[in-house]
Amino acid sequence: MFSHARYKHRVFYSVKALSTTKPGGTQDSSEAVGAPLKHFTAEELLQYDGTDANGAVYVAIKGVVFDVTDNRKAYEPGQGYAIFAGRDASRALGLMSLKKKDAVPNLDGLEEKQIDVLDNWVKFYQKKYMIMGTVGPNASPGRLPAIATAETKPSE
Ligand code: HEM
């Protein structure tokens, strides 16, 4: 199968806030550095779907909003990953789906393997892109959603 693991990524510093997230919980964003985080409604986030050729493009995963503008050619309307733009597309990323109906935050019914796929996408976006804020009812600028990745799981 096609592997996404071989890409070279730039590393940003804004990951720190998430890397200390406690399992199953939320955390204080005071550890976050860089630009202040904004809390978006789903409707506000839609403004960043790439329709505006000069505007920023954002993609959210698990309630965390990433700025993908640098790679906007992949996310603009009509492009391969346009369904993710301006949305929390967690479900689609977990399912490896490019169907518009899957570009939603709801993870109901996903298998453990699919959650692992999603968490790998989280790692990918964390390494490559800046975090701009949060979206959805379970997050606010002061309460980054827990993003469980291999690095953030407690050592057992
Ligand atoms: C045969 C199928 C596929 C091929 C050949 C393919 C190819 C690629 C390539 C070449 C990139 C790197 C783009 C770049 O360098 O900017 C990429 C990134 C990506 N792919 Fe795929 N892909 C495939 C299927 C999928 C599917 C089914 C999904 C659904 C989740 C997906 C989601 C993504 C995402 C989210 C990125 C990251 C884009 C970014 O860097 O911001 N891909 N893919």
Structure description:
It comes from Sphaeroforma arctica JP610. Residues 40-136 form the Cytochrome b5 heme-binding domain. This is Cytochrome b5 heme-binding domain-containing protein. This protein is of the alpha+beta class and 156 residues long. The chain has a single domain (13-135), classed as Cytochrome b5-like heme/steroid binding domain (Flavocytochrome B2, Chain A, domain 1, Roll), CATH 3.10.120.10. Helix content is 22%, strand content 11%. It has five helices and four strands. The chain has helices at 16-19, 42-45, 72-75, 90-95, 112-128; strands spanning 38-40, 58-61, 64-67, 130-135. The protein has a four-stranded mixed sheet. A hairpin with a 2-residue loop joins β2 (58-61) and β3. The longest helix is centred in the last third of the chain and has 17 residues, at 112-128. The radius of gyration is 15 Å and the shape is globular. The relative contact order is 0.25. Mean pLDDT is 79; it is low at 5-32 and 148-156. Bound molecules: protoporphyrin IX containing FE (HEM). Protoporphyrin IX containing FE binds at residues 2, 4, 68, 71, 74, 81, 92-93, 96-98, 128.
